[in-house]
Amino acid sequence: MKSKIKLRRKFSAESLIFHTFNYVFLALLCIAMLYPIINTIAVSFNDGLDAVRGGIGLWPRTFTLDNYRTVLGMHTILDAFWMSVYRTVVQVVTNIVVTSMLAFALSRREFKPGRPIALIFVLTMYFNAGLIPNFILIQSLGMVNTFAVYWVPTMISAFNLIIMRTYMRTIPEALLESARLDGASDFRTYLQIVMPLSKPVLATVALFVAVGAWNTWFDAFIYNSGAQHLSVLQYELQRVLASAMMQGQQSSQSSQAAQAGMGLSMVTPQTIRATITVVAAVPILIVYPFLQRYFVHGVQLGGVKE
Hints:
- This protein is mainly alpha-helical.
- The chain folds into two domains: 21-63, no CATH class; 64-248 and 263-301, MetI-like fold (Orthogonal Bundle).
- The protein is 75% helix and 0% strand.
- It has 15 helices and no strands.
- Helix 3 (66-72) packs across helix 15 (269-302), helix 4 (75-107) packs across helix 8 and helix 11 (199-215) packs antiparallel against helix 15 (269-302).
- The longest helix is centred in the N-terminal third of the chain and has 43 residues, at 2-44.
- The chain is globular.
- The model is unreliable at 257-264 (pLDDT under 50).
């Protein structure tokens, strides 16, 4: 009896030490991850000249909205913002529709070529043609300086296809067979049975595609640099940052000191960089918490490939 009590006490002490270590470690990890984000927000609301001195922690030392007025006051930024929203919505819709239809066909066990075709799509995840052949292909299709270049090449994603196919194979065959016995066509089965049951994986794929489309700027730089009305937010923010850094290098320390002496605020590359980071991240940060559970579910699905 005494040995059991000692063992229980020993186990409790070890468990307490283990959990204490875990809590401390996770707390330090959270601080290490949250501090750069909070610091970036603080710098974005801080005066530029004051930010050059450094030492800004979790709160702006000299609060100002000039950085956001400078960035959001440019009409190109607002136009690019709405273009990014439009591009993201179109890309999400087209990717989900086309990829889900292909995944439904490949998930049917009676479709014998489904497995080899899925393998071909998987190979594209590891081998691609490269930048120059892709540019030649896009140019030959007449999609340079057009909106189509944002959504046509991304209608099918191999990774999203595998996720959808894996999920749709878990749908009971009895449901699909019952629909066929009732006279439902393959398209009606896909639309009225498979799609409603696939809402979790559809939300997961929508999140994947939306985050990728929102953060992409390279295709606008490569294919649509000659069409200003098709510029996206990330590309315009890159240009604003490059312009601010160039102006910061050209401005002398004496002029900055003079402005500081007159009590004028100044926008510097450091504060512009922080402001651009916040502006680009806020839309995704707003949407992500609502779809987080689907994101975790999608990661689990992606780890199982047949």
